[in-house]
Amino acid sequence: MTAPLVGITGRRSSGRLAAGRDPRFVDVQFDSYFSDFARWIAAAGGIPVHLPFEASPGEVVRRLQAVVITGGQDVHPRRWHGDDHVDPSLATDTRLSFSAYDDERDGYEIELVHAALDAGVRLLGVCRGHQILNVALGGTLVPDLPSSHVRHDSPLSAPHGGSPDHEVDFGPGTL
Length: 175
What we know:
Layout: E1 5-9, E2 11-14, E3 29-32, H1 35-43, E4 47-51, H2 57-60, E5 66-69, H3 103-119, E6 122-125, H4 128-136
Parallel strand pairs: 1-4, 1-5, 5-6
Antiparallel strand pairs: 2-3
Helix pairs in contact: 3-4
C-alpha cells in the first residue's frame, strides 16, 4: 500500500516578525508551518506536504489523499457575511502581525476546501481550519465567544512534543 500524501496549510508573514531577524530579510515574506502536523502525519504512515498559496488547489488535490487546514488568525468577517466594522488592530497588514486577518490565506483555503470536496479528498480542519470548513460551506461564525476554561492566548508555555493543548469532545453523531 502506498503512503497517502497529506497536504498541510500554513501562514505567510513578513521577515519583520522573525525574532533576531537579519536586516537583509526585512522585506522578504516567509511561509511557516507547525511541525507537529507533519510529525504526526508521518508517524501515522502518511507523507506530509506543505502547501504554499501558489499551489493551485485544483491541481494539488488531484495528487493528495487528504488535506489538513491548520489554525491561525480569525477568518475575515467579509468571508462569512459578518460585521465589516472590524477591530482596526486586526485589519493591519497581515504580513506584519500574527493576529491580523489574512484575506489571501482565507481565499486560498476556501478554494482548497471546495477543490478537495469536488475531488472527494478527505479534509480535517483544526481550530481556524474548522472555521474555514464552515465558512466554505456557507456557514457563519460567532465573532466573540464567551470566556471558557480553554485559553488560546495562554501565558503558560506552548505545548511541545505533540502534547495536547486542550481536549476536544465530540458528541454522538457529530462526526
